[in-house]
Amino acid sequence: MTTMESLIGLVNRIQRACTVLGDYGGGTGDNAFNSLWEALPTVAVVGGQSSGKSSVLESIVGRDFLPRGSGIVTRRPLVLQLHKTEEGTEEYAEFLHLPKRKFIDFALVRKEIQDETDRITGKSKQISPVPIHLSIFSPNVVNLTLIDLPGLTKVAVEGQPETIVEDIESMVRTYVDKPNCIILAISPANQDIATSDAIKLAKEVDPTGERTFGVLTKLDLMDKGTNALEVLEGRSYKLQHPWVGIVNRSQADINRNADMMLARRKEREYFDTSPDYGHLASKMGSEYLAKLLSKHLESVIRSRIPSILSLINKSIEELERELDRLGKPVAVDAGAQLYTILEMCRAFDKIFKEHLDGGRPGGDRIYGVFDNQLPAALKKLPFDRHLSLQSVKRIVSEADGYQPHLIAPEQGYRRLIEGALGYFRGPAEASVDAVHFVLKELVRKSIAETQELKRFPSLQVELALAANTSLEKFREESKKSVIRLVEMESAYLTAEFFRKLPQEMERPAVANSKNQAASPSPAAQDLYGDGHFRRIASNVSAYVSMVSDTLRNTIPKACVYCQVRQAKLALLNYFYSQISKREGKQLGLLLDEDPALMGRRLECAQRLELYKKARDEIDAVAWVR
Ligand SMILES: Nc1nc2c(ncn2[C@@H]2O[C@H](COP(=O)(O)OP(=O)(O)OP(=O)(O)O)[C@@H](O)[C@H]2O)c(=O)[nH]1
């Protein structure tokens, strides 16, 4: 095998493997792989409709095999891979999508291109970017790969979608935009080069003309007395590579089924005998074009091999990293499955604890409950209303029944205090709920942050359910505890606090002792007056505020003890008790991976294989040189 054959053949093989994996360039989105296809040098045939693209391709091949007709015939890219075989061997064609079938009859090749186009696009006139791969093995070709693209058009005709003009242009652009694409720009000589669709596009994407090969067809159809030397000699539009003039079969020749080999000979004669182009004859014609392209493609491939290899190596590294991240496929035996599940639980539990103890955010929100929410809620309790003069009078009077109290209204005090203490239930329960929601949110976060769990949506759901069931239980316990704290305050009041009160009450009476004989003591006078009730209200308020201070400290202790501490100690106990009852098959259900992930793992593995194979092939060919 010569080097040229090996290099072009190598790219052909890699291209075919890429297509099988759905890589034909243009991949987008977060999940897109590096496109190996895009890194490979290709020759794309670009031209306006009827510019002679099909004719040029057929001339290069030396066979009649492309569908013809009116409208847009080429509706999918055709990757045409030409393989030179030894003189005297039979010519045949093969499609990538029909690997076992050898086409000897080229009329059937044409039909298969049509049928395969319709298979993807339907009979509609839609276009599709999925390429058709056709390999032709013949002694009459040079090793070369060309991609035939739909002809650029200006207007949609009957039966074509409105967007066809832009659709074709954007498909053609996805090829010619790539710096590795060699543009074979076909323009007809009987049309002003300034209006050539191919040149217009090439100018845009390759302004320096480095990767554009200008081809001028229909030289024989120019008006008598005119010639295309201005273009062919690079004066009308300069490119880095010389222009190539072509004379293809005319429509009449096609209708007559004129032999392609004969057409090649006639083309040669045309240039050899042409008074205008005789001096350029050796650099004109489709055979020369094929050789020129083949040589150029080979040299471009050679120069790109280091960058292709570096892309491949980079992709291999990325894929291996991703496969690592995606983890191994799930084990099949129950023991290994249980082990996998427990490992993941451990990983989750670790993250959950980091959230609580610090290192990850979120645990501080529990402190926020105790430091802000609880004090604010306690402050907002409606003690002012409960201890308003009117309410105190009512409660104290009601407590005395028909016999008014003699000294301090013991029952009245108790009722007022009991009534006030009842208000503490609200903030106490609200604190428990607030802590519960923080914990629940931390469970959710921790599950999301546990890399290992990402693959197993069912396990995530079960784990979350079990953890939340435990949190619910802790919440119940915690509520009981805080309510008990409040009830304990109601059950036994701090008598010490009240023992101080009579002395304070007597003080105004002592101050007024001089007047005692003249008038009744103001203390006695005040016994059923507003001042008396105000004093009661203020005493009760002071007591309640003392209890509030106590609860402010004890409610957080109960919450932490019953909820936070328990969550750290036993969050997954319920889950463990559940899975220990499960049979092997049910364990397997927990480990049903997300199908998207399974698909991604498979895709990565296939890509990895492609890249490794491509690397080996390149290594083997590169050393032949
Ligand atoms: N006389 C002459 N006719 C040509 C030449 N090149 C192409 N033609 C004719 O021009 C017409 C269009 O050529 P095609 O090769 O079908 O052009 P195309 O660009 O593939 O056209 P679409 O696939 O429709 O976009 C056909 O009738 C060809 O016979 C040429 O060099 N000389």
Provide an overview of this structure.
- It is a single chain.
- Helix 1 runs antiparallel to helix 24 and helix 17 runs antiparallel to helix 21.
- The longest helix is centred in the middle third of the chain and has 41 residues.
- A nine-stranded mixed beta sheet has the order 4-3-5-2-6-1-7-8-9, with helices on both faces.
- The chain is elongated.
- With 625 residues, it is α/β, with parallel strands linked by helices.
- It has 24 helices and nine strands.
- It folds into two domains: 276 residues, 3-Layer(aba) Sandwich (Rossmann fold), CATH 3.40.50; 238 residues, Four Helix Bundle (Hemerythrin (Met), subunit A).
- Bound molecules: guanosine-5'-triphosphate (GTP).
- The site of guanosine-5'-triphosphate (GTP) has 23 residues, from helix 3 and helix 8.
- This is Dynamin-related protein 1E.
- One of its GO terms (molecular function) is GTP binding.
- It comes from Brassica oleracea var. oleracea.
